[in-house]
Design brief:
23 strands; about 5% helix; 16-stranded antiparallel beta sheet; 3 helices; 3-stranded mixed beta sheet; disordered N terminus; globular; mainly beta
Amino acid sequence: MTRVIFLIFSLLFFFGGTYAQEGRISDVKIQGVKRTKPSFVKKLVKVKAGSVLDSVALEEDVARLLRLPSVAHAYFQVFPADNNQYNVFYNIEENFTLIPFASVYSSTNDEFAFRVGLQEFNFLGRNITLGGFYQYDVFNSYGAGIRAPYLFGKKWGIELNYQNLTTQEPVFFDNGTADYRYNNTSFEVLALHEFNVRNKISFGGSFFTEDYSYLFGITSPEVPLALVVDKYLYKVLYHYDNIKYFYQYLSGFKSDLNFQYVQSTDERLPEFAIGFNDFAYYLRVGEKGNWASRLRLGISSNIDSPFAPFAVDNNLNIRGVGNTIDRGTAAIVLNTEYRHTLVDKDWFVLQSNVFIDGGSWRNPGGDFSDFGDNQNLRIYPGVGLRFIHKRIFNAIFRIDYGYGITRDSERGVVFGIGQYF
């Protein structure tokens, strides 16, 4: 109804997307917020007191608000005031943003593994993300980070991350595998910039130390049993988001580009570049359906190394395939699924999904014909469920079962927090 009223005002006072010069804003009010600072919201929105009333700016402001972690839903209202002035109200339904998380999975040697943590996505009421985690996966790991995208105004921010991650990693040889204790200790600094509501960029780098220690399995004279090396990583991330958000339903297109260049202080682990792009498309199907697809294209320096950067893994790309079962220097992965809402209450949603995950990899030191090799191609259809809390940010518990139909395939259950993509 409020949109109809707004359209009437638009037809009377406005032509070509902007109100006539006489139609100006008297006041901007923020309603519905409890933890989010109204001053923070007013800093982000384009519409200000004294400016010309512009329908396009109002729509863009709502689109920006819907992308904030603290916002579950948002809309605007326009009411006439005196002397051809208008009052604008932004109405916000807030998310609960102090989120504990936990994931349980099997490690590379089928032992019990888990990760637990806590994140606040609206620290100080300004949509600053602050959090940390502890992980047990044969070895102990931990990390912490802070992300403040609007620390220096509505366009610039900063992100800091520290991680001490230790895992048992398989290393693949022609005639078998070996297992190494792998430790990565890193400190990362990124600058964040928002061009507009749909286009954002992050850039910066990290200093990290990698420590490889042989545990068991076959050996090779070309691969050391122990190695400690310092590295420098330079990173650029570009995010394009043209998605319309309505609670659990998404429609539109987005793209995420990730490019990294790594310098090494040890010639046995030479410098390399890696880049990949995730293209995602979402389509509403009727009132309760959502079709979602993601295509990942990735390539890195084609170094013949058992430590290739693209992993085939349950939690990254192919549901049901297993935990880090292979590696490559290029990847093509397509995930597509149909999500259907079974139950939709005031705060709770139960959603089912049917999916197909498929992908192929280039072997380390190989060529692009490897993509057609039956040993590299994996296709996994499956089914799953989503348990969604509509008032808690990213409170989506997912469970998927994938069944391989290609050569030497496995099957398995995958748990996680958040939609798979």
